[in-house]
Structure formats: structure tokens, C-alpha cells
Amino acid sequence: MGQETVQETAFTIVQGGSVTTPRGFRAGGLHCGLKKTTRHDLGAIVCEVPAAAAGVYTTNVFQAAPIKVTRESIAAGGVLRAMLVNSGNANACTGQQGEADAYEMRAVFAEAIGVPAEQVAVASTGVIGELLKMDRVRGGAVELPAKLGESYEAADDFCQAILTTDLVKKEACVAVTIDGRTVHIAGASKGSGMIHPNMATMLGFVTTDANIGSEALHGLLRQVTDVTFNMITVDGDTSTNDMLVAMASGLAGHDELTVAHPDWAAFAEGLRYVCEVLAKAIARDGEGATKLVEVQVRGAVSDDAAQAIAKTVIGSSLVKSAVFGADANWGRIIAAVGRAGQPVNPDTVDIRLGDIVTLKQSAPVAFDEDEALAYLKGDTVVIHVDLNMDNGSAKAWGCDLTYDYVRINAAYRT
Q: How would you summarize the oligomeric state and partners of this protein (predicted)?
């Protein structure tokens, strides 16, 4: 698949780019037998040099074994050479054996590619509470290095290997200019259900050839996560396995990026765009979803207040159900705004569905029901809420709540 570029303000969108587009990265995937189908279920991203690394993780108290291992790997020296990921089994709530299996995953793959074990991170996604079939993981980890490549097809194999109930893969790539050199930032993620992150997404992986230290990368990753992955919800459930890991090879060859670098803002904007694309793709691919829902809040007393309100509205089961039914029930929206626990003037709220005004200064506005019905039947619905109090603003993304969501999750293990 060829690459095409689309110019934006601070960066260029690379159509057809992937996690292997940044210099120094290879990827791949295969079926090792963790899934009942023949779909890929083991994948890896490998860097030819030690890459500066950073990660953010779920705040769920029951954290899966791979999170402990990955935290330790990144903390050991702030660098990674590889990321090994399996789907079909979360390796969560599996006790000491689960931890031992996660460490073994790391060790086996490290040996297979000839790097220190502490430079390998691991991630898992799938069913909670079942032990990994380690004979299959071992076999796959040994076979996987031969599948690694720099091609789009190799990156696609990785993307396919990390999916569970996802219907589509999620990826994005941009190019930015740092010190006159072209730097790529790319990402891949998975997520469809159990999505209400308080750190990142179900699983997300970012690669870049930027020259940036682990500490600076970690600080920026947390900031970007707060306005992208932390602003999506599908079902209100924060997973035991949520993880976002970034790796920077430094092979672009520019001066080291810090907040004082004149091109820092361009890099930050590129990273934010990649993460926002991935986050919105997860929301759009929510289990059973038929449409992407975006909530835009402005006029709040602060950005934090706007974020809380936006995420309350996007997470409301009543709002999500109304969107699914194409019902312009703005009362559910205003009710969610009022219970978000943030300062709101009950006399100054405006609400629009796309361009259709339904509430002005907290008073109902007559609107064309047929026009609203047609708009809500589209595949993207944007809900605008203006509190008319101050300058705080935020966006959140989610999806509608459908009959299929219940069907999918009623039989998840079978």
C-alpha cells in the first residue's frame, strides 16, 4: 500500500503510514493458537536500536500481569527494543502463575531477538481469569522474529494480531519537521468494549523516529492522553489491561527534543493528532455501535470542568440510547450536564445537535423534528453544549448503545 501525504498546520498526515514508517521499526504478527479462530493472536513491534520509552497504564485496582512486567521494563532504563502483544487472553486476575507467564513471555521473545529481557515489554488482551496457553505462546514467540518486516503488510499483521471484538484495525501516521528533518509519528491501537479509560485505551502503541528522552516523552504522553484516550467511552468500564506505550528510536538525527526546543509544539501537535485519531477510531468501533458520537463543551469555568461534563454526557446510557434511536431528546443531555458535579448556571446553557438548536439560554427552542431525525440517523453525531460561563472547553467521543452491545457481551467467553 503506497503512502500519500495531506498537509496540515503543524504536521502532514501520511495516508498508508504505519508503525513501521518511523525509521528503525519492524513489526509482524501470526496465529499461535490462543484464539479459537485462525486470526492472528500474537504480534510484535521491534526497534533496531534501544528506543526511549514511556507508558501510561490503567488505574483499575486489578491490574493484569503484563502491566507489572512492562512497568518494570521501562523503569529499568527508560528504553525498549520490543513490544510483544497477545490477544485472546488478558492474563488478568491469574495470580502468581500469571505473573510468571508474563515474565516468561518477555524472556522467550528477548532471547529470540537477541536483546536483554528488561528491554522487552509485554501486553495482553482478551478474556479475564484464564491462564495463558504458554506452550502456544512460546512457539509463537520463537517463530515471530522471522515474520517481522518494515512493509505495510507486516504492520498490518501486527494490527490484526492485537484485535479482540474489534471490527476494524486502528492506525494513524503523521510527519513533522524538526530541525529541518522529517520525523514520523505513528500509532496502532485496539479497543471496542470495556472502554472507559483513565490513562489510555485498551491497548495502544506509538512509534516515532524523533530524538527525545524517556522523561520528556513520558510527560508529553500523559498530557496528550488526557485530552484524547482519556476522553473516550464505550460502556463505562475501565479495563484491567489498559496500556499505552510509546517508543522513540531517535534515528531522525535532529537535536534532542525538549520543551525548550523550537519545534516542540509541532511534535506535540503531531502526537496529539495520532492519539486522537486512534481514540476516535476506538469510539466509532465500540461493540455493536452504529455511529460515532462527539460531545463538544465550551463556556465552562475551566478545561477540567468541561472535560468532566463532556465525558458525563458521552457516557450517559440514556443519551447513547437516544442517539441510537435517532431521538432528539435534549432533556437527557441537559440532565447529564447537571449531574456532572461541575459549576453550571442553570439559566445560560445552549445545546445543539449538529447545527440544530434545541436549547437556548436553558429554554426550549422549536426545531424541525424531521430534520433532527435525519441528522441523528447519520454515522456521526456531534452534540454541542455551551455553558456561557467562561472559556473552558473540551471534546469527548463515544458511540451509541445498541441491541448488539448486549448480544456481544452476553456471550463474550463463548
A: Heterotetramer of two alpha and two beta chains.
Is there a catalytic annotation at residue 201? yes
Label residue 58 by pLDDT band (50, 70, 90): confident
- The amino acid sitting at 99 is E
Closest C-alpha among 94, 57, 93 to residue 75: 57
CA 96 vs CA 120, 264, 289: distances in Å: 20, 43, 37
Which helix (H) or strand (E) segment is 178 a member of?
Answer: strand 170-178
Residues 128/92, Cβ–Cβ less than 8 Å: yes
Structure letter (DSSP) for residue 147: G
Q: In this structure, how many other beta carbons lie within 10 angstroms of the beta carbon of residue 225?
A: 24
Q: Give Cβ neighbours of residue 274 (< 8 Å, ≥ 6 apart).
A: 172, 173, 174, 185, 186, 187, 206
Q: What is the CATH number of domain 292-410?
A: 3.10.20.340
What the block records as the C-alpha cell of 268 is: 506535540
Look up cell 471496542; give the residue: 192
DSSP secondary structure code for residue 400 in this structure: -
Was 329 annotated as part of a binding site?
Answer: no
So what's the pLDDT on residue 196?
A: 54
Asked if the model's pLDDT at residue 199 lies above 50, the reply is no
User: Does the annotation place 414 within a ligand binding site?
Assistant: yes
Give the per-residue SS3 of 49-90: EEEEEEEEECCCCCCCHHHHHHHHHHHHHCEEEEEEEEECEC
94 is in an annotated binding site: no
- Please pick, among 201, 208, 228, 312, the residue that the annotation labels catalytic: 201
Q: What pLDDT sits at residue 241?
A: 78
Q: Which residues contact 21 (CB under 8 A, 6 or more apart)?
A: 3, 14, 173, 184, 186, 207
CATH of domain 4-284: 3.60.70.12
Largest CA distance in the chain: 68
Is pLDDT at 169 greater than 50 in this prediction?
Answer: yes
Tell me the residue type at 75: A
Is 409 assigned a ligand-binding role in the annotation?
Answer: yes
Q: Which three cell numbers stand for residue 363?
A: 429554554
Q: Which residues contact 224 (CB under 8 A, 6 or more apart)?
A: 268, 271, 272, 275
Distances (CA, A) of 181 to 2, 142, 253, 257, 335: 21, 37, 8, 13, 50
- Per-residue pLDDT band for 5 (boundaries 50, 70, 90) equals low
